[in-house]
Amino acid sequence: MDDHQRNLPSQVAGDRASLTGFLQYQRETLAWKCSGLSVEQLRERAVPPSALSLLGLVRHMAEVERSWFRNVVSGEGTQPHWPRLTPDRSPAFDVDSADPDEAFRIWEEECARSRATVDAAASLDTTVPWQDEVFSLRYVLTHMIEEYARHNGHADLLRERLDGSTGE
After folding, report:
1. Bridge-partner residues for 127, per DSSP?
2. Burial track 139-150 (b if 16+ CB lie within 10 A, e otherwise)
3. H or E stretch including 130?
4. What's the whole-model pTM score?
5. Cis, bond preceding 87 (omega within 30 deg of 0)
6. What's the rounded Cα separation, in Å, for the pair 68 and 75?
7. Backbone angles phi, psi at 59, to 5 degrees
8. What is the C-alpha to C-alpha distance for residues 132 and 150, in angstroms, rounded to an integer?
9. Mind giving me the DSSP string for 13-55?
10. How many Å apart are CA 6 and CA 10, to the nearest integer?
11. Residue 3 above 70 pLDDT?
12. Considering Cα of 151, then 157, then 158, then 159, what sign does the dihedral take?
């Protein structure tokens, strides 16, 4: 893997800076795991029969960012970038003809919107109703860190399988 820049979160920051710092670090980790690979490598389902690929993870995380920050936190009601054609499979993982440049552009745009949404919120205790539930911004940030961390574990395995690269 190339020397992709990742910024370590502060070890002494307050809650908001800690949560946003760890989330950004996880985003940078996914970008790092995808760096320096060919289109074919990004699309490769490296552990059959799983549909997981690095490109699929990027597309999935773009949808997760959109869903949680634009739909849940901001109440926008946006539609998926890659609409579901069948109820049993996420189209984000259908990458055989997917364009990596498009996927990374959409993901980066969603991450920027998410950061702006968090920056505009008055407090981590800000709550939003969503489908008979209520979520605080603190919960959403914590969930997003967990979501990225889990998928970055997948990315570690996929990347090692593709070219032997390892690293946290």
Report:
1. 136
2. bbbeebbebbee
3. strand 127-130
4. 0.93
5. no
6. 9
7. -65, -40
8. 26
9. --HHHHHHHHHHHHHHHHHHHHTT--HHHHH---STT----HH
10. 12
11. no
12. positive
What are the distances in angstroms from CA 167 to CA 1, 32, 134, 157? 9, 10, 37, 10
Pull the structure tokens for residue 55: 């490109």
Phi and psi angles of residue 35, each rounded to the nearest 5 degrees, phi first: -70, 145
Say which DSSP state 69 is in.
Answer: I
Q: 25-163 in CATH: which number?
A: 1.20.120.450
Residue-wise pLDDT tens digits, 43-91: 999 888 888 999 999 999 999 999 999 999 999 999 999 877 667 777 8
Alpha-carbon radius of gyration of the chain: 16
Determine the length of the chain: 168
Among the residue ranges 11-15, 87-91, 96-100, the one predicted with the least confidence is 87-91
Residue ranges of domains in the chain: 25-163
Amino acid at 30: L
Token readout for 145 is 């860190």
What SS3 state is found at 136? strand
